[in-house]
Design goal:
57% helix, mainly alpha, Death Domain, Fas, 2 domains
């Protein structure tokens, strides 16, 4: 099979009509890795056995699932079950994180990005900013809201959010605290 044919077939496979990879959800595939019930004439013309593109897509889903099962690479040494509330309970660690995230900067993501990652809307972020930022408590308030709405949130989840916004400096502070 020529490279152009593989590319074309792989592009066809990227459409969600063949396979979804929503956190390991492979409902659209049977046990042998074949797609179920073709829906268009083009689908019906495809061979029933898995193609190279399907194998590649399955491998990508499997790899993505394996990474999500292992947790974020940033959480090394921190147990998956360590509640985020532990950070709120430790004044020293919380103040170090707050100093870093409460700074308003155009070049670095701050508490607003964390709030957004946890689904705190624009109006609520503006309210937090208006009421709490003069006291330097924005990060504390955001983390408090996150913990109160979902007590099962872990430190590892927080590290993932920090990694997503590119705040490895804050990740290092948290890791250092838990390794001491």
């Amino acid at each position: 099979m020529a490279d152009s044919e593989l590319t074309s077939e792989a592009e066809d496979m990227s459409d969600s009509e063949y396979m979804t990879c929503d956190e390991g959800n492979r409902d659209s595939m049977d046990q042998q890795g074949r797609t179920q019930a073709p829906t268009t004439a083009q689908d019906q013309a495809r061979p029933e056995s898995p193609s190279l593109a399907q194998d590649l897509a399955t491998a990508q889903c499997t790899a993505a699932s394996a990474v999500s099962d292992q947790g974020a690479p940033t959480g090394d040494g921190i147990e998956d079950t360590t509640p985020l509330e532990n950070i709120l309970d430790n004044e020293d660690l919380l103040s170090k994180i707050a100093v870093m995230l409460d700074q308003d900067s155009n070049s670095r993501k701050n508490w607003k990005a964390i709030a957004t990652k946890y689904g705190i809307g624009y109006n609520e972020r503006k309210n937090i900013e208006y009421v709490n930022c003069q006291n330097g408590r924005c990060t504390e308030v955001v983390l408090g809201k996150v913990v109160s709405s979902n007590p099962d949130i872990t430190v590892r989840d927080f590290l993932v959010k920090l990694e997503e916004i590119g705040r490895n400096d804050v990740i290092d502070v948290v890791k250092k605290f838990y390794h001491e």
